[in-house]
Amino acid sequence: MTPFSRARMAAGLALAGLLSGHAVQAASETPVTPGAEETPVTTGTLPLDELRLFAQVLQQVRDAYVEPVSDQELLEAAIHGLLFRLDPHSSYLDPKDFSDLQVSTSGEFGGVGVEIGMGDNFLRVISPIDDTPASRAGIKPGDLVIRIDGDSVKGMSLSEAVERMRGEIGSRIELTIMREGRDKPFDVKLVREKIKMTSVRTRELAPGYAWVRIGQFQVNTGADTAKALKALQNGAQPLRGIVLDMRNNPGGVLGGAQQVADLFLDSGNIVYTEGREGSAQHRMDATAGDVLNGLPIVVLVNAGTASASEIVAGALQDHRRAVIVGTPTFGKGSVQTVFPLMNDRGLKLTTARYFTPSGRSIQAQGIVPDIRINDARLTQREEEGAFREADLPGHLANNNGAPERKGKDNTAGKPEAEKPKALADEDYQLYEALNILQGMAIARAPVTPVENKAAAPATKP
């Protein structure tokens, strides 16, 4: 048998298997995805004309292309192309890609720190990762990467582009960015770093109110979030509510997202999936116990909130456990299953769709916030010249000991951190989320009767 005949037979077998929806493989050579059901290969009519056409193209390329290309390279290119045309998230993983995927879900890898997808023949930024070269350089969700080190990304597969963006720690890379609202592309110069994800971070926003930031879902995110919440509850001030910030969270490990949602829900469904195969039908339910015992939650989202983070937001919204604020989320509502293949390769394939507890599909729609708050820069108007009662000549004095408030800036002379506008200047969406959270906490607080200290009315003689 000639090399071309062997290639044609291999191509036919590969295409026959892939077109019928099942990989053609030796059972002893390829491990089965944990938890997946083994499905026998089905038989049916194959598109023989298309298979012949493929074999003709393969032969022409092999015989007439300007440079010799091995049968292995041609067949791997065919597999790449087949998966590339399915959807933006399915892909063939060579040994390095497969290894990189496993490393990235463990929380540590090398690169510039940005989650990307394909869009309009360019790389579209889904979200930068917190405290990485990309986030510090101001790269934003929705940015289009049109060139990498001067080379156009048109025609590149997603895996090829990711490979170009990764490199030796300390090496430099230049990305050319197109951004909505700007007339011309601009260049961003970055230095590659070892990207180590900090999944959960917290800080106090005001006495009793905390910010809980989840940057990406990893295997241990649920346990890390529970630990962080316990520390907040044991703080000096009684915890009255949290802002759960999942802006620019590209998703990650589904199990981590399920565990986080379960922390705040006492019962009911978190998410369910539907697909063609029986193994793609899956339901995740909450277990008893709300770690916050009903304390108010505001979830902050934006266009960079994707996949697993949308599942958390959708579950808390459907169960009315939290108020969702910000801007509509990315809308990635599909499930990717990674199937290990022979020779350290893998197949990342879209196998199902996500649905929120109420039956909403996230796909291409996302989570619509309960209260929309756009990202903005707040310009505060000073009230230096405002005229108040205390400025009137001969005004009555305040008899309860409180200082009089005259028509001037009452924060003058105070440290910047103490001024009310500090958080608004730093992060307007977070500032508004805190305002909503404080309102929720006040509304649920028990009403304490106020002692009536008013003097008894005088009686007429």
Description of the structure:
With 461 residues, the protein is α+β, with helices and mostly antiparallel strands. The protein has three domains: 3-36 and 53-85, no CATH class; 108-196, PDZ domain (Pdz3 Domain, Roll), CATH 2.30.42.10; 200-372, 2-enoyl-CoA Hydratase, Chain A, domain 1. The chain has helices at residues 3-19, 48-64, 71-84, 95-106, 133-136, 158-165, 221-233, 254-264, 308-318, 421-426, 428-444; strands spanning 91-93, 108-111, 114-119, 122-128, 144-148, 151-152, 172-178, 186-191, 193-196, 200-206, 209-214, 241-245, 269-275, 282-285, 297-301, 323-326, 334-340, 346-355, 371-372. Strands 3, 4, 5, 6, 7 and 8 form a six-stranded antiparallel beta sheet that branches. β5 (144-148) and β6 (151-152) form a beta hairpin. α1 packs antiparallel against α2 (48-64), α1 (3-19) runs parallel beside α3 (71-84) and α8 runs parallel beside α9. The longest helix is centred in the first third of the chain and has 17 residues, at 3-19. 30% of the residues are buried. Mean pLDDT is 83; it is low at 1-42 and 412-420.
